[in-house]
Design a protein that fits this description.
By secondary structure, the chain is α+β, with helices and mostly antiparallel strands. 25% of the residues lie in helices and 26% in strands. Strands 1-12-7-14-5-4-2-3 form an 8-stranded antiparallel sheet, covered by helices on one side. Bound molecules: 2-oxoglutaric acid and fe (ii) ion (FE2).
């Protein structure tokens, strides 16, 4: 889409499908950002970066380490081909237990990113009235810089999200939330790391049932990624982007206060998982015949509940 109005944007977000917005007014970052500009603006800053010998980052098996670099040194390493792959996902200043916010961690360049009017972000930094306020509330703004060919594990986030591509092209592969049973999940992440591998169906036969959506983001494109949609991104070139998570007004009370990344399950879902584990612990104490019977009764109950959702 181009030239979106806020009504059109609202109705697209409501549809809960990913879509690309081309050339929206995200500010001067789209014209100014490059290594020389960052060098002039940013004197010295330490960043913690994922570094791996593999371009396919795997969070489950952790095939990377975290290394601290000076930001400008990191940009140099990340943009050259030296056999290592680098990925910066900006985090809070003092520890990872702080929400990423460009204005706080990168104040020198934060004003280069503006939010198009159609998103209707609330002007108040900490709106005292998030429940009643008609505007959207920004949760975090995250700077994402990757080496060419680097891809990020397939995962979902619990918040609505716009991923803005600023430098380089990026391929994004998405799967709808209904594909969860086919993605071999461990929490919010898929075990399937190489989505291009030829023998996926041998190791992951259910993956055949998944519906894959693909797009390539050019600089200036932004992608709406609905909450709970699985996504995997691959930088086709040295890539700089920013993404913005915002809170769904209907879920304000449901988000986990300890969520610093926009990806912690809703509190009630976490309770449900805990209780499900407890239920299974109880049933697993029974002899097989009874265990089988009661587990199938539980599944029937869950299926009935699932079918009642339109
Ligand atoms: O491309 C990336 O660096 C990951 C983007 C992502 O996971 C997101 O926007 O939620
Ligand atoms: Fe994500």
């Amino acid at each position: 889409f181009e030239n979106l109005t806020s009504d059109k944007f609202d109705s697209l977000v409501e549809q809960d499908l990913p879509f690309i917005i081309r050339q929206a007014a995200f500010g001067s970052c789209l014209r100014n950002w490059n290594k020389d500009y960052f060098g002039q603006k940013i004197a010295s800053k330490q960043v913690s970066v994922h570094v791996s010998t593999s371009p396919l980052l795997d969070f489950i098996n952790k095939n990377f380490s975290y290394c601290v670099y000076d930001f400008i040194e990191f940009l140099k390493l990340c943009s050259e081909e030296n056999g290592l792959y680098y990925y910066l996902r900006s985090i809070g200043n003092h520890s990872s237990k702080e929400i990423a916010n460009l204005s706080e961690q990168f104040p020198e360049i934060a004003n280069d990113v503006e939010y198009p009017e159609f998103i209707n972000f609330c002007a108040e930094e900490n709106c005292p009235n998030e429940n009643e306020c008609p505007n959207r509330h920004l949760f975090s703004s995250v700077l994402r810089i990757s080496s060419r060919n680097l891809s990020i594990w397939t995962h979902y986030d619990v918040m609505e999200n716009i991923l803005l591509q600023i430098i380089g092209r990026k391929k994004v592969i998405l799967f709808p939330p209904t594909d969860a049973p086919f993605l071999y999940l461990k929490g919010d992440k898929s075990e399937i790391i190489d989505l291009e591998a030829h023998d996926l169906d041998k190791k992951y036969p259910m993956f055949n049932n998944a519906t894959r959506y693909e797009c390539i983001l050019e600089p200036g494109d932004s992608l709406f990624i609905p909450s709970m949609w699985f996504h995997n991104t691959k930088a086709l070139e040295y890539s700089i982007g920013v993404n913005f998570f915002w809170k769904n007004p209907q879920l304000i009370h449901h988000y986990d206060r300890n969520d610093f990344y926009g990806n912690k399950d809703l509190k009630l879902a976490t309770h449900a998982y805990v209780n499900l584990d407890k239920a299974l612990q109880h049933l697993n104490k029974l002899p097989d015949k009874y265990r089988k019977f009661y587990i199938s009764m539980c599944i029937a109950k869950l299926n009935k509940s699932l079918k009642s959702i339109s």
